[in-house]
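One-letter codes give the sequence; the fold follows as tokens. Both lines appear below.
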Amino acid sequence: MKRYMMIWTFLCCCFASLLAVTPVLEDADNAFLQKKYKEAIRAYETVLQQGENADIYYNLGNAYFRVNDLGRAVLSYERALALAPADEDVRHNLEVCQAKVANQFNLPSEMFFITWLRNLVMHRSCDAWGGYALFSLFLSLLAFGIFRYGRALRLRQVALGVAVLGVLCFVFCNIAAAWNWRSYAHDDRAVVVEPVALVKDSQPKAELIMDLQPGVVVRVVEETLRGWMLVELPNTKTGWLRSEAIEKVKPAVQVPVETAETAVLPAENGENSKDDDR
């Protein structure tokens, strides 16, 4: 009886949370449609305090883009893409923002195959790769059964080939899922959200390397208790900056939030809109 009471209490809490989030989300969507972008930003951030949602991050990024806050727009799109890596609309809007970032870097060259493989793996979520792995396993077992008990020689040969291919796909999908999960679980990227000086040491009067503008994505190498972070730029150069000028892509809150029909809002100024698909 106590177990059922605990389950019932949990379901009631979830339902109450949904009822609390929905009016705020509706207010945010209405404010966005009325071009009250700052109000929409505050409301979306209130909803996101309850947990993560890719569509809300997408809408938040659109709102930041409208008020010309490129740093937080890039941050929101990066967080949305981490939750929904196959979302082409988020990816497109992120590319639009990144093209407007003042600091551009000459990235180190990389083998085409490595770049292609990374894009392939990161273009799907860990759950998606897990689903592909299960399907490959089922297909290989089915094909092996046909090979084992089939009578026609040609059919058995084809079944054996399919079984081997299924095993290879199963192994690859598991490796891709592990790679994808590790990249998300150990995501140390951060986005510059305020103009900041990159210096050679964690001292107030350290030598200036360059000024970074909002929207630059860096990798956090080290943090200090004095409010400094050692970061790595896209071109692999390193330097120190003040921690309040950047925000990590992976937020502190990791619990997904379910909302009643999250509206994906129309886009402007070169942004891609999910409404076009409807």
About this structure: Residues 1-20 have pLDDT under 50 and may be disordered. Residues 122 and 183 are 9 Å apart (CA to CA).
